[in-house]
Amino acid sequence: MKLTGPFSQILTLSGIPLKGAVKDEQLEIITDGGIVTADGKIIKTGSFEKLRNEFPNAEIEEIKGKNVLLPGFIDSHTHICFGGKRAKDFAMRLNGKTYLEIAESGGGIWSSVTNTRNETEEQLFQSTFERAERLIKNGITTIEIKSGYGLSPEHEIKILKVINRVKDQSKATIVPTFLGAHMKPRDFEGTNLEYLQLLVNEVFPIIKSENLAKRIDIFTEKSAFSIEESRAYLQKAKENGFEITVHADQFTPGASVMAVEFGAMSADHLEFSDENDIRALSGSDTVATALPGASIGLGMQYAPARKLLDSGACLAIASDWNPGSAPMGDLLTQASILATFEKLSMAEVLSGITFRSAKALNLTDRGVLEIGKKADFISFPTDDFRDIIYNQGQLKPNQVWKRGVQIS
Ligand code: NIG
Ligand code: FE
After folding, report:
1. What single-letter DSSP state applies at residue 301?
2. Is 219 in the pocket of ligand 1 (CB under 6 A)?
3. Ligand 1 nearest atom to the CA of residue 320, by list position
4. Ligand 2 centroid – CA 46 distance (Å)
5. What's the 46 CA to ligand 1 centre distance in angstroms?
6. How far is the CA of 250 from the centre of ligand 2 (A)?
7. Which of these, 274, 281, 246, lies nearest to 260 by C-alpha position?
8. Residue 180 Cα distances to 113, 147, 216, 224, angstroms
9. Which CATH number does the domain 74-360 belong to among 3.30.70.3270, 3.20.20.140, 1.10.10.10, 3.90.550.10?
10. Are 373 and 46 in contact (CB under 8 A)?
11. Distance 308 CA to ligand 2 centre (A)
């Protein structure tokens, strides 16, 4: 058993509802706090001095200076397993070309597929692992990683295996997601539905038998898969026992309504969600995930985060780190910027990157500093939690713990 502290402030994130708007006053703040952990779990949080008396045999992990402790961040949507880069696409966008025009002229997702296919498993493993390391340094202790730059049974399986190797070796929790349905590959001669059928017939059984992922994602969009095509695929995913998440409403509305109908864990993007989408998400258990990194990367509007929260939705925020639309890969910076444009409280931002994004991954064992939860937490070198969002990502965590052990 170990007692870590004292911390100037501990933000437990405890007691905040899973859904809807949150005021900063709802944040539970323990001053001069400590946290007791054992076997990777939280035993208790409270006043450091009181805990020292209550647990006289606990080993003391002393914290020096000003520090604010909070749950490790959870990035519930990334595409960090990829080869190459897309700086050329970015330059074209700055010259006025749209994301879709660039895709049509040979850039876009397909160029990343070519680059990813050309890399060996070892190369892909190294670059993905290094990106995960960077996320850990930034306080992210649980990372979702999607496939989706292979787009053939062979290459998608290869990528899922790489992600699982990262899962085995990273100090963070890695959650793999199958996104074979990112777009129909250019070298597939057949319809969208035939490609999706191929994934169902040839990839689903391997994912299941080799336990490569529990979650299925699809890019539902005019330029990728229509709502009708997505429905057929998601029905099969459900029948196969997978959890569902959807790339929804990035450029056109309607996919969130569908995601909710299928009981998706989350609908992500939402830049173009309309009133029907917002109503459906708010009235459901599907987490509404904003991806401000894609808005910043593409120079597009943000997801209607304020409206979603005020209508009662569970709002998570994730980085969408990928080589195309969201190359920055800095969740805290992006979430802080989303907050200024959408007028989110600091409590809403912090909830969106902790227990609410945990919910998007169907994880209820983390994201709050409560008894029995995973001892994943991070500290920032300040005595005022507001400095974290105020510095818009430039104040970095100085310590990161995973299952009670300091990893950064
Ligand atoms: O979430 N929208 C689809 N997929 C990714 C982008 C992928 C890419 O541009 O390479 C996204 O933004
Ligand atoms: Fe994405």
Report:
1. P
2. yes
3. 1
4. 38
5. 42
6. 9
7. 281
8. 11, 7, 8, 12
9. 3.20.20.140
10. no
11. 19
Give the ligand at the shortest distance from the Cα of 245: 2
Question: Rounded to an integer, what distance in angstroms lies between the CA atom of residue 267 and that of residue 290?
Answer: 9
Q: pLDDT tens digit string along 292-316?
A: 999 999 999 999 999 999 999 999 9
Whole-number Å distance, alpha carbon 386 to ligand 1 midpoint, is 32
The answer to whether 216 touches 245, Cβ cutoff 8 Å, is yes
What's the gap in Å between 73 CA and the centre of ligand 2? 18
Question: How far is ligand 1, taken at its centre, from the CA of residue 148, in Å?
Answer: 9
Q: Would you put residue 333 in left (φ > 0), alpha (ψ -120 to 50) or beta? A: alpha
Question: For 2-72+368-406, which CATH superfamily applies?
Answer: Urease, subunit C, domain 1 (2.30.40.10)
- Whole-model pTM: value is 0.98
Which whole-number Å values give the CA distances from 51 to 10, 69, 165, 379, 385, in the listed order?
14, 16, 39, 19, 22
Residue type, 213: A
Please indicate whether residue 245, judged by its CB atom, sits closer than 6 Å to ligand 1: no
Pick the atom of ligand 1 nearest to 99's CA: 9
The ligand 1 atom nearest the CA atom of 103: 9
User: pLDDT per residue over 214-271, tens digit each?
Assistant: 999 999 998 899 999 999 999 999 999 999 999 999 999 999 999 999 999 999 999 9
Q: What single-letter amino acid sits at 129?
A: F
List the one residue out of 58, 39, 37 whose CA is nearest residue 49: 58
217 C-beta closer than 6 A to ligand 1: no
Report the distance separating Cα 33 and Cα 54, nearest Å. Answer: 14
> Which residues crowd ion ligand 2, with CB under 5 Å?
320
Residues comprising the chain, all counted: 408
Q: What is the pLDDT of residue 105?
A: 87
* Whether the CB of 150 sits within 6 Å of ligand 1: no
Residues of the chain with CATH 2.30.40.10: 2-72+368-406
Give dist(CA 207, CA 160) in Å, integer. 8
**Interatomic CA distance for residues 267 and 280, integer angstroms:** 11
Domain with CATH 3.20.20.140 in the chain: 74-360
| Nearest to 356, CA basis, from 286, 307, 407, 293 | 286
* Test site for ligand 1: of 78, 82, 86, 109, most ligand atoms within 8 A of the Cβ: 109
